[in-house]
Structure formats: C-alpha cells, structure tokens
Amino acid sequence: MLLHPKDLRDTNILLGVSGCIAAYKALEVVSRLRKRGASVSVVMTDAATRLVSPLSFQTLSDSPVYTRMFEAPKQWNVEHIALAEWADLMVVAPATGNILAKAAGGIADDYLSTLLLAFAGPKVVSPAMNTHMWQNPATTRNVEVLRRDGYFVIEPDTGRLASGAEGPGRFPEPRDVVEEISSFYHSDRALAGRRVLVTAGPTREYFDPVRFLSNPSSGRMGYAIARAARERGAEVVLVSGPTDLPSPRGVETISVVSAEQMHEACLASWAETDILFMTAAVVDCRPAAYSGVKAKKDQDALLGEVVPTPDILTALGEDKGSRFLVGFAAETEAEEGLISARRKLRKKHVDMIVLNRVGGPQSAFGDDHNAVRVLARSGEEDLPREHKRILARQLVDRVVRALPGRDM
Ligand code: CTP
User: Fold this and answer.
1) What is the pTM of this model?
2) Is 215 an active-site residue?
3) Could you give the residue range(s) of every CATH 3.40.50.1950 domain in the chain?
4) What CATH topology corresponds to 195-402?
5) How far is the CA of 244 from the centre of ligand 1 (A)?
6) Which of 262, 318, 382, 403 has the most CB atoms at less than 10 Å from its CB?
7) What's the CA gap between 365 and 217, in Å, rounded?
8) Using a 6 Å CB cutoff, which residues line ligand 1?
9) pLDDT single digits (tens) 213-262
10) What is the rounded distance in angstroms from the CA atom of residue 295 to the CA atom of residue 50?
C-alpha cells in the first residue's frame, strides 16, 4: 500500500504515552503523524510525565497535553467523553505491561485507561518493555485478550533494551510505528464509502390488536453487525423489527414491525446498498385476516388461515446486481441444517450464508454468545462460540476479505 504523503489527512489521533523509558521516542511519533496530515492530542500517564516533559509533547502536537483526570475538575467529566468523541483512532505508544493489563481488564483508574474504555473506535497499542515482562504469561494473556477485543498490536522489536539485555520488547523505530499505524487505519476503514444494509430482530405478524406470530430473536447479532460495519467506516442503515436494544451510534435505524414493512424499508434503501446482512428472523407466514377487535377464543379458529410473508432475501437477491449479500440460516438440526443452508446459499443468490443453531440449550436466539458456520462458494469455515460483538467483527471481516477488487 503506497499511501503517504498526507495519508492521515483529516484524521484525529489520540496518542497515549505510558511510562516506559522509550516514552521519548513518542515525540518523533507525534511529528511523523503530523507530517502525514493527522491532528494529534496527547494523553500521558503520571509515570510518563516523569520521563518526558508534557511541554515537549505540547510543542510538537501543537495542542494541550492531558495528564491527570482531576486536574481540571470543572471540565474533566465532559472532557474525557469529548476527547473520545473527537478521536478517529486511539494509539498507545509506548504501551507498558501495566497499561496493557488495565486495557485488557477494562480498568479505568487514570485518564489514559479511562479514555481507552470510553473510546469505541479503532485502537492500536505498541508495547515496549523488558523481555521478561513481555514474555510473562500474564502479558501474553493480556495481549491475546486485546487482540480478540479488536486492538491492533504492533509487535515489539528484538534488540538491545534499556537494561542492556538483548531480547524482544524494544520499541520499534518511530518511522515503523507510524507506518504500521497508517496501514492498520486504512485497512481497518476498509468499508469507508460503502453502504451497508443490516436487518435485525424478529418480525411480528398481528392477527388482532394484541396478538401476533413471532419468534424469540433478540436482534443482538444484527445490532452487533451494524456496529461492526460502522466501526470499519461504512455508512449503515439498520432495519429493525421490535427489540429492546438502543440504536447504535452513527447508524441510521429504521423501526418496523411486520415482514412486509421490513421488505418495504429494505427496498427503499436498496438502490444505495452495496452490502446486505439479512440477519433478521423474518416470520415466514402471517394471518390472512386481521381483526380490528380482539378475537374471541371461542371463535371457530382464533388465528384463521395463514399465508406466506414475502421472502425478502430471495426478492432482493433477484435484483442483486454487484451487491454482496449475506444471508443467515436458522436451523435446529445439525446435519440437515447444513444441507439446507448449502441449498439456501444457491437458491437465494447470496454470496455467504451464516449458519446458526437455534432451539435447544445452545440456541442463538437471545444469548449473548453464538457459534456459527460460514458458508461461501469458495469454502466453509467454523467460527467458534464467541460473544456476538466479537463474532460480528469476524463476520464483517470475512466480508471485507471476500469483496471483489480488494488488494489488502
Ligand atoms: N428470510 C427473508 N424473508 C423471509 C424468511 C427468511 O428474508 N420471509 C431470510 C432470513 O433473514 C435469512 C434467510 O432468509 O437471512 C434464511 O432464513 P431462514 O429462516 O433460515 O430460512 P427460510 O428461507 O425461512 O427457510 P426455512 O424456514 O424453510 O428453513
């Protein structure tokens, strides 16, 4: 990827500096980020301020340096949220074993760790410490957790450390750190300029004002996918059936009730859509008749005749064009479910099917966790049981990698 010069133009970077002897090298990181067009705000831990003067960072970043959370009591509360809102990217360089542990555990006991918890966008850490600390199983574990949570970790170099010993743990050359930050940021924003349509939740098919046909879908998977696509720079429209979930930040959410309304809302966005995640658990049939008053149970047939609802995914698939379509298959049987999901992949003209087990103790419905099998024409892959937030990122990532014309 040949992007520089000015490849970070209009990018707001929040740079955290923690207390390691390599903290002075972060000064060059600031200058290099600014040369690439980024605006940089620096947050230093207490220990870092003992190693390098905040004034140096202030001069090089040309903006105030944030140190203690309670230093400006009139503002801090607003400020840490405001800074987290301002930033497009957060970087901790150098990152000590201590800040890695705090970030992995969600501990927020100073300004930098609080910002790491409050910031929802892409995050990079560049660890630097002595070899024993780097190779300590606790650090290995923390780094693994951070990677799973979506952090990008810049591997430390191997070489002569401040202690005089040789080994892995060295802070890389600032030039290389900035190169890694930039290529991560651009690959991470892989969906910038793309429009993603996500459907989520159940539908409800009412047969009188108070009763309906539905299913226990919570909408969590679809909401997590909308958030994950947004994190990667997409413009996202979320068409949601009834759920208890708040609309994800930065996502346009359209609330619908029935399959028919969901279909209409999808059609209204279809011309601008590049990628569809059809995550909703659409109810397949609806009562043929609707009674404006509550039906009586001694009526001949309370529910009456049912008729099919539109198969939204199939209908959209018929006008696929160059769009990338992801369908979901909710199946109760393992073997038959797989056969049926493979059939749906062909029949519904989709590029990918995500197979979910529903019903039984490990049902995808309502749980925060899920395990899925991803079926594409090129092959199949199992994604082990994970929190839906993480699984959503993995699914969005599979789509990013499968998009035609990608060279990363
Ligand atoms: N789907 C849809 N419209 C429907 C039913 C399903 O768009 N009326 C979509 C779902 O959102 C999902 C995919 O089609 O992305 C497969 O849904 P699923 O319920 O597993 O399959 P069905 O097509 O309903 O087939 P069956 O119930 O026979 O398994």
Assistant:
1) 0.78
2) yes
3) 12-186
4) Rossmann fold (3.40.50)
5) 22
6) 262
7) 5
8) 259, 278, 280, 282, 284, 309, 311-313, 327-330, 340, 344
9) 999 999 999 999 999 999 898 999 999 999 999 998 889 999 999 999 99
10) 75
